[in-house]
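Hey L., structure's done. Input below.
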Amino acid sequence: MSPRPGDRRAVRREATRAEIVSAAWVLVREKGLAGLSLRELGARVGMRAQSLYSYFDSKDAIYDAMFRQGVEEQLAWMAAGPNADDDAADPIGSITAHLQRFFRFCTADPVRYQLLFQRTIPGFEPSAESYALAVEVLEQLHHRLRALGISDPAASDLFTAVATGLVSQQISNDPGGDRWERLIGRAVHMLVTELAPHLLAPEGRRQRRSSR
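Output:
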């Protein structure tokens, strides 16, 4: 059965919105996040800048659609990494692999990283619907840490601070390299030593006690 006219219009509308968002990503990767010009964006999708308002209420609404898409990509990327079984079999290795996966997701697209994790657009706040997806990412980290016996309420803040710190240093000071990626294993050991010494091998715990 052929789709009804209303359905066809909705499909075309969503396809046009997706085309606009895709073109916006291309533009900000060329010009930076603050360089998103509605006039240029409209030209790239074959319409006037004013016509974009038929699909998005404002420039911030376009940023919001990009933010939501970025978080959805992050959820899919992280879901393909280590799972709960990996955590149970090799907690330290799994945490390290998880952090490395996050690191590579971020450094693969510095502009996307800026939009998702840094306040680089004055006045922009993601919508409640889009931000709920970002909260879901954080809740997954909470759950993962609790399953490993890490109950410190500040644990996820420490993990995210260390992870994004490594990412920011890599992007700023060694783009395309691996200087800070090579520190991930040591960073995980540092965090686990502080937050979950029970996960360390006996010799690791002895070294921690002797260093005090």
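The chain has two domains: 1-56, 59-210. The CA atoms of residues 74 and 105 lie 7 Å apart.

-- N.
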